[in-house]
Structure formats: structure tokens, C-alpha cells
Amino acid sequence: MDCPCCANLSYSNCCHPFHLNKEKPLTPEKLMRSRFSAYALHLIDYLIETTHPSQRHLYQKKEIENSAKSNVWLKLEICEAKKDIVEFKAFYQNGLKIFIHHERSVFKQENGIWYYLKG
Q1: Max CA separation in the chain (angstroms)
Q2: Could you tell me where the DSSP H helices lie in 1-119?
Q3: C-beta separation of 98 from 87 below 8 A
Q4: Domain 11-118 adopts which CATH fold?
């Protein structure tokens, strides 16, 4: 299976090891890609675990789950990735309409682990 993050790799050689917690993403871009794949595959716990602990209170598990499951996640385009910022476009379908979520996400590394901080 191709990885949902659109890195042109198989899922098993891309985001799957992160989702199984066998590896940690070494860059904010890889974390962003793994989070997009987690939305596409409805891996809600992974999305919560990869959000910085100081920000987790802002996200309710049920809301994340509803967003992940009510949309079909079509593709991810990385516009720019540098240091701790990743600008991306996430394409998704809700009903018959296609939407683009365009965001500049900020990531924070703590104890060698990257987390999503804010968008």
C-alpha cells in the first residue's frame, strides 16, 4: 500500500514504523507526514501523542476522531519545511466537495522527540 502522506513510499517504509511507535520522526516534515497519514487512517491516539503536552488540552479526542472519520483525506503537499516550521496543504473530501486545509505548523523538539505545537 502506498503511504497516505504522498512521499512516494510504501506505508511500511514510511509512516507505519512511526504509527507503531517503533521509530520517532527525526524531522518536523516527517512528523507532519505521519500525522496526515494518521488522519487518513483514523489513528486518533497517535495524533494526540504527537501533539505537544502543553497543547493537548486544546484538542478533544472526540473532535479529532470526528474530523478524521468524516473526511476522506486525499493528499498532502508540503509547500515548505525549514527548522521547526512546515507549511502544507492537506486535500480532503467531505461529501461531494473537496477542500484544502493550508497551514503553517510549528513544531517543538523536546528530549529528542518532535511534537506538533500549533498551526
Answers
A1: 43
A2: 16-19, 28-41, 44-49, 61-70
A3: no
A4: Nuclear Transport Factor 2; Chain: A, (3.10.450)
